[in-house]
Write a structure and sequence with these properties.
Structural class: alpha+beta
Length: about 575
């Protein structure tokens, strides 16, 4: 019995040792698998982090020089991305799926931001890089042979440009200042008598929208302005806006600002929307602070405000030009300053676009100014349409590119220039060419009618690239686009003399109409005598001085780049 018990206990211990060995072997297998899983997980994590680093660096590189800060072309962004990825050791094509380089914009739904690819609104760049690696280095195909790692990155750079069209005054001389006094004084319902030096100081001053709006009290906590759209819809009086601009200039020590404010004390306060004077993009990713930090022309703001409050009203203005009287200005579309990013929005409209002024100017020319006899004034009218300018693209400067190239596009305005009867330039005006008289009893004279209708066609798809290496020295900058209006050529080919009569007086005046060769001879003789004074004394001062002061160029357009902000590159997703 005792021997049986001993034999039974031995077999039990053997079975226990066998079970222990099996458990130990099983635990060893599990441990090896766990170790394999840990090693492979760590390896895949490291590989994913390397891939994410490549995606992040590539997206930042492209955003720095592509998208809004580049040509906006997808092919250019893809080329930049491929070069950047190669620098970081990634040589696989980024244009081959599932890799991707895309341009688009961000959208927010339920508080979550996501990227949307777009061929028009190209605010951000999205990069996806992938790499296929072995799923396990130790377990062979136990976890599958390969796994696809994927990394996404979205970055942006938000450049801004401030532009104006139709002439921003960079300086004012003694010829312009009397005209500007009459134009601005008439539009603002006050009397101005600033000198050229005082105007010049205001014209050359740089002032930010932020400073003006702070001075006007529009950006305080009490103003309750929560967005760019709210700001543009804010109501302010013309007097508030102009005084705020002049107060900022006065604090900067700008000559003439306090003098102008004093002379405008009697100026009426007319309500207007801030968006009537400023065109600020409110749909993109740029912030209110960045949009309002750009510098604008103080004198441009004042002129635009004056035009806005007189839109579609005929205003009598005193030009102060010899022989040019009864001037009346009607502002159809006032000029504005635009601030925003380059490129198109989702609707295919330019994000930052500005119109030049559209005006109708009429005035009378004294016949004596042209060496003509008689008392009937010759009326001149200039009726302009609206030209446009927009920011097409911005190639922002980097460490290797020392200049920011701002490309603008523009269309000039159409216009009609007429000479004719006062009050109705569609009709020719009577004038006397020569008059010989003896004692009021015997005499001879030549009478005729004078008329000009010159239509100036618009030009489209004009462009220019501003190179900006240093904002302090290179801005503001102006370029004139379009062929302009050849006044002399228009007069030589389109000024018409008709209804020629020769009159003989022997106590009673008897006039005989001249036709055929006789009328042609008179017209060919007289026309050259009229062209020079018309060009030098009437049309040139009006077209090259008066209208540009109001932001209008006939046959061309002035595009002004006032300020830029290239922003910083940042990851957004």
């Amino acid at each position: 019995m005792q021997g049986f018990i001993r034999r039974s206990s031995g077999r039990s211990r053997q079975r226990e040792r066998g079970a222990s060995l099996l458990l130990a072997a099983l635990f060893m297998v599990i441990a090896v698998l766990c170790l394999t899983l840990v090693i492979d997980t760590a390896r895949l994590y490291v590989e994913k982090r390397k891939l994410q680093r490549i995606a992040d660096l590539t997206a930042l590189d492209v955003a720095m020089r592509g998208g809004l800060c580049g040509s906006g072309l997808l092919t250019d962004a893809q080329a930049l991305a491929q070069t950047s990825a190669a620098r970081n050791g990634y040589t696989t094509s980024l244009t081959s799926s599932p890799n991707a380089v895309e341009l688009g914009y961000l959208t927010t739904a339920s508080g979550v931001r996501s990227f949307v690819s777009s061929t028009t609104q190209r605010e951000v760049v999205h990069v996806r890089v992938t790499r296929t690696v072995a799923s396990s280095l130790l377990a062979g195909g136990f976890f599958g042979s390969n796994v696809l790692l994927m990394a996404d990155a979205t970055a942006r750079r938000s450049p801004l440009a401030t532009i104006s069209a139709g002439t921003t005054l960079l300086s004012v001389n003694s010829t312009q200042s009397p005209v500007l006094n009459g134009l601005l004084g008439g539009l603002l319902g006050s009397s101005l008598s600033l000198t050229a030096v005082q105007y010049d100081g205001i014209a050359k001053a740089k002032v930010s929208l932020l400073a003006i709006l702070n001075q006007a009290g529009l950006l305080t906590a009490q103003a309750n302005v929560g967005s760019v759209s709210d700001l543009l819809n804010t109501t302010i009086t013309s007097k508030q806006l102009i005084n705020a601009t002049l107060d900022v200039l006065t604090s900067q020590g700008v000559a003439g600002a306090s003098v102008m404010k004093t002379q405008l004390l009697s100026m009426p306060a007319v309500n207007l929307r801030l968006g009537d004077v400023l065109a600020i993009d409110s749909t993109g990713v740029v912030t209110q602070a960045s949009q309002l930090s750009g510098n604008v022309s103080a004198l441009d703001m004042i002129v635009a405000t004056a035009q806005t409050i007189n839109q579609n009203s005929a205003v009598n203005v005193a030009l102060g030009l010899t022989g040019l009287t009864n001037a009346q200005l009607r502002v159809i579309d006032p000029k504005r300053t635009a601030v925003g990013p380059p490129g198109l929005d989702l609707s295919g409209n330019w994000r930052t676009e500005v119109k030049e002024s559209q005006v109708k100017l009429t005035l009378d020319i004294a016949p004596s100014l042209l060496g003509l006899l008689g008392t009937t004034p010759i009326s001149l009218s200039v009726d302009s349409a609206t030209g446009k300018a927009h920011v097409t693209s911005m190639n922002c400067r980097t460490a290797s590119d020392t200049a920011t190239n701002v490309k603008v596009g523009a269309d000039t305005s159409a216009a009609t220039v007429k000479l004719g009867q006062s009050g109705n330039t569609a009709n020719p005006v009577d004038f006397t060419i020569a008059n010989v008289n003896v004692l009021g009893l015997i005499g001879a004279k030549v009478k005729a009618q004078l008329q000009l209708t010159s239509n100036v066609a618009n030009s489209t798809n004009l462009s220019y690239t501003f190179p900006v290496s240093n904002e302090a020295t290179d801005l503001p900058a102006t370029v004139t686009l379009g062929g302009g209006y050849d006044v002399t050529s228009a007069l030589n080919t389109q000024l018409a003399i008709s209804s020629v009569q020769t009159c003989v007086t022997v106590i009673v005046e008897v006039c005989t109409p001249q036709v055929g060769g006789a009328a042609t001879t008179v017209a060919n003789t007289v026309l050259p005598l009229l062209v020079t004074p018309l060009v030098n004394l009437a049309l040139t001062p009006v077209l090259n001085t008066v209208l540009p002061l109001m932001g209008v160029r006939i046959g061309s357009i002035d595009v002004d780049l006032l300020d830029i902000d290239v922003g910083g590159t940042e990851m957004v997703l």
